[in-house]
Design goal:
The chain is mainly alpha-helical. The protein is built from 14 helices and no strands. The protein starts with a helix and ends in a 10-residue tail after the last helix.
Length: 332
């Protein structure tokens, strides 16, 4: 990637971090007191994401390799781009407005634009697909662990139905590709349609090539597909460790499976409001609802959300710093 473009992404992320810090809805002395109260548990909260991001990177690396023994990009570089990409996604509205274009532009010089684009799109699909499977597994886990009332049964039924429908469409997309079909559907939407049709007409052959690469991963390199899914799904489960570590600060009466359910409900609620930077407000509401559903004190949900928000800011700063490190060494 040209240094100019990388600097633009860096500046956008840095501005977002400054805005977040200036608009933090808490006195900094009080915030520091909460962090000191967490002690070494706060270090564990931040540190567990070293492992989670590594699992994300391995998942993406399996997609990039696509069954090949040698690829012109190392796992270490993929790890670096994974952290920086997620940092941009956290900092920008609508999630995918920052991290995914950055990853594509960084990988295009070494992989080619079509392969870089298809690998990023496939990883985004895998990331979303693993979320859906995580929500489905958590809904079933809730039914096993608790006795849902009528209202909860209705909610769980809706979640399960949505997840099964989404899995069906993802299966179709993995089998035949989904970029061209998605643009054709978007082409029927007023205002947005003209842009989708223009993109489909101008890049039709390239988009067909990307679709063929998407289908190839599932049909011809199924081992890579399932390995990628396994690492990404495990990363989803490991995010519950963050909730577990935070709640251990407040009480010893907590188990890992409850934390899995809290993480699932919170991420589901947060993704409904994906357009909010760092899911501000949506994340807090998700925590409050999830801990209430599990008969846990609502104050725990507020504290958990606060510590999680601080951890995100720290990793956004780390991700932005990594954008400026190691680029000459990894240039093609």
């Amino acid at each position: 990637m040209k240094p100019l473009y990388r600097n633009i992404f860096f500046i956008l992320g840095a501005v977002a971090v400054v805005i977040m810090l200036l608009t933090f809805d808490m006195d900094y002395a009080e915030l520091w007191a909460h962090i000191r109260r967490a002690g070494w548990w706060f270090v564990a909260v931040v540190g567990v994401w070293v492992v989670i991001y590594f699992f994300n990177a391995v998942s993406w690396y399996f997609i990039i390799k696509n069954g090949e023994k040698h690829v012109p990009v190392s796992l270490g570089r993929v790890y670096k781009l994974t952290i920086s990409g997620f940092a941009l996604n956290y900092a920008t509205p609508c999630g995918l407005m920052g991290g995914e274009p950055y990853r594509i532009m960084e990988l295009s010089p070494v992989l080619g634009s079509s392969r870089a684009t298809s690998s990023v799109i496939l990883y985004v699909m895998m990331h979303v697909f693993s979320h859906i499977c995580f929500w489905l597994a958590s809904a079933i886990l809730f039914i096993i662990m608790y006795k849902p009332d009528t209202t909860m049964w209705i909610l769980l039924a809706a979640v399960i139905a949505f997840c099964l429908l989404a899995i069906y469409f993802f299966a179709k997309g993995y089998k035949h590709g989904m970029i061209v079909k998605t643009l054709r559907v978007l082409g029927r939407i007023p205002w947005l349609g003209k842009y989708a049709r223009k993109l489909l007409e101008s890049k039709h052959d390239k988009l067909l090539q990307i679709d063929s690469q998407i289908a190839e991963l599932h049909s011809q390199h199924s081992a890579s597909f399932y390995a990628s899914f396994l690492f990404e799904f495990c990363a989803r489960v490991l995010t519950a460790l963050e909730i577990y570590f935070i709640l251990r600060i407040l009480t010893s009466d907590v188990n890992f499976f409850d934390c899995v359910l809290i993480m699932a409900f919170t991420s589901l609620f947060g993704n409904i409001f994906f357009f909010s930077p760092m899911q501000l407000g949506a994340r807090e509401g998700g925590f409050a609802l999830s801990v209430s559903a599990l008969s846990i004190s609502g104050a725990y949900g507020v504290y958990t959300s606060l510590i999680t928000r601080v951890r995100e800011v720290i990793w956004i700063i780390i991700g932005l710093a990594l954008m400026k490190i190691g680029n000459k060494r990894n240039a093609p």
